[in-house]
Amino acid sequence: MSSLYQHGTLAMLMGKQMQGTASVAELLAHGDTGIGTFEGLDGEGIILDGKVYQALSNGQVVQVTDQDVLLPFVSVHFHEPTEVLPFSEVDFGTLSSKLEKFQLDNIFAAIKFHGKFSHVHTRVVAKQTIPFPSLLDVSKNQPEFHRDDVAGTLVGYYAPEIFNGPTAAGWHVHFLSDDKKFAGHVLDFSATEVDGTLQLFDDFIQHLPIDNAEFRDMSLDLDGLSSGIKASEGRKA
Fold this sequence. Notes:
6 helices; 6-stranded antiparallel beta sheet
């Protein structure tokens, strides 16, 4: 059995709930690999080999060593790959078609690969303050970054369309360069010399912050939720 653990929901962020509700220590108990964001949407999180990195909206990347740092939304798993990636080069537009034989439409999966990237286009959300805006409003004005000829690791998840709301349907991936100086939520990429794996999950664990009063009191407008999430994610695939 292979499990994907997710704390919080993407719908919460759309509903202006960006307060941190789980600590780094709590999340690392459920996985050594993953992606997420920090309290107040303070940047993009990348978890590799049990280490947590934070891409900041000023373009810097820091390693998070404080186990008490809080996150509102994060997905993690223990890296136990089930498949070797069947390609040596890929871009965001061809990622799904190159994995078509694995029939991902109705399952959760994690991808993790190292490669040489001719181009990576990322965004990093800036920290928000109370009263929090919606994720869609934040996404309309967010720093974007480009890097050419960079070696690094891409990690993230595929989720079925039916789970759009709890998470982002389709691909949601982050990038971290080998020199730990460039990272973020991936909007587009092109990679060669790809070496990595795919992990298929038969168990999706959704954890909710039921002790958080703001979450319990949230009123979510479901109209346009799916289109809003897609717009805020800015996916190319």
